[in-house]
């Protein structure tokens, strides 16, 4: 049941938020066939892994959260389900057809879709969260990208988080990302989900080493 105000009616944000449709598995697979390097997965992330990402990122008590690479919205759905009514979620997606699909699927006033690459989060901090974001949740396929791109995105994420903020990344490659994350975060923990298609790792970085 959606949360209700003291007089029993649904809150404003819940009245405006329509439940998202099921993300399309076929549109995701077609996008993968067209651009494997950018999309990096054959199917949307499972509901259970998306929910776990929201938990690891502490979204249920967050106010300002960012998602990198929402795709067709599998993780976005779980982030919005956990986010408090007065929370905000900004999502960066560079694949234009996915952006169109997200615009048609999500009508939640807490969500802002941005058609730019994830590094732009640094500028977003200046305008929307001067004290830094609570959490950044990411499913960009880093092991398929040039190393300097990965490093630039991680540095921007570390710069954009508040002290105590959390970075949660989903990765299919078993060993690629953890050493790079350790350059930007004081602690990195891992969880493995063999039943996701494909099997996946969640890496959680805390203690940004950002000096900016
Ligand atoms: C593995 S898919 C994950 C999609 C979805 N989050 C899920 O888990 O089902 C990776 C997504 O990251 C997006 N992406 C890749 N590089 C990006 C970048 N630099 N900035 C923002 N999004 C990016 C791709 O377009 C794609 O939608």
The portion of residues forming beta strands comes to: 15-25%
Please state the CA-atom Rg, rounded to the nearest Å. Answer: 16 Å
Biggest β-sheet description: 7 strands, mixed
How many helical elements? Answer: 9
Quick one: overall form?
A: globular
Q: Which superfamily, in CATH terms, is the homologous superfamily? A: Vaccinia Virus protein VP39
Q: Order of SSEs, N→C?
A: HHHHEHEHEHEHEHEE
Could you tell me the mean pLDDT?
Answer: 88
Proportion in helices? 25-40%
What can you tell me about this protein's structure?
The N terminus is likely disordered. The longest helix has 14 residues. The chain is globular and about 40 Å long. The chain has 212 residues and is an alpha/beta fold. Helix content is 37%, strand content 23%. It is built from nine helices and seven strands, in the order ααααβαβαβαβαβαββ. Helix 4 crosses helix 5 and helix 7 packs parallel to helix 8. The chain has one domain: Vaccinia Virus protein VP39 (Rossmann fold, 3-Layer(aba) Sandwich). The N and C termini lie far apart (42 Å). Strand 6 and strand 7 form a beta hairpin. Strands 3-2-1-4-5-7-6 form a seven-stranded mixed beta sheet, with helices on both faces. Bound molecules: S-adenosylmethionine (SAM). S-adenosylmethionine (SAM) binds next to helix 3 and helix 5.
Task: From the structure above, extract its key features.
single chain, 212 residues, alpha/beta, Rossmann fold, 9 helices, binds S-adenosylmethionine
């Amino acid at each position: 049941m959606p949360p209700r105000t003291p007089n029993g009616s649904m809150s404003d944000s819940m009245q405006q938020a329509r439940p998202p449709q099921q993300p399309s598995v076929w549109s995701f697979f077609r996008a993968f066939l067209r651009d494997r390097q950018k999309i990096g997965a054959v199917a949307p992330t499972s509901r259970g892994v998306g929910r776990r990402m929201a938990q690891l990122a502490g979204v249920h008590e967050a106010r300002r959260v960012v998602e990198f690479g929402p795709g067709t919205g599998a993780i976005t759905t779980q982030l919005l389900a956990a986010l408090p009514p007065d929370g905000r979620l900004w999502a960066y997606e560079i694949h234009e057809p996915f952006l169109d699909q997200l615009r048609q699927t999500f009508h939640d006033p807490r969500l802002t879709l941005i058609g730019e690459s994830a590094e732009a989060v640094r500028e977003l901090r200046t305008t929307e969260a001067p004290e830094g974001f609570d959490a950044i949740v990411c499913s960009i396929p880093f092991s398929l990208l040039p190393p300097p791109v990965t490093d630039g995105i991680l540095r921007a994420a570390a710069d954009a988080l508040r002290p105590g903020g959390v970075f949660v990344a989903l990765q299919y490659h078993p060993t690629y990302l953890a050493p790079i994350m350790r350059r930007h975060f004081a602690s990195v923990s891992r969880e493995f989900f063999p039943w996701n298609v494909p099997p996946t790792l969640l890496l959680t970085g805390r203690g940004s080493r950002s000096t900016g």
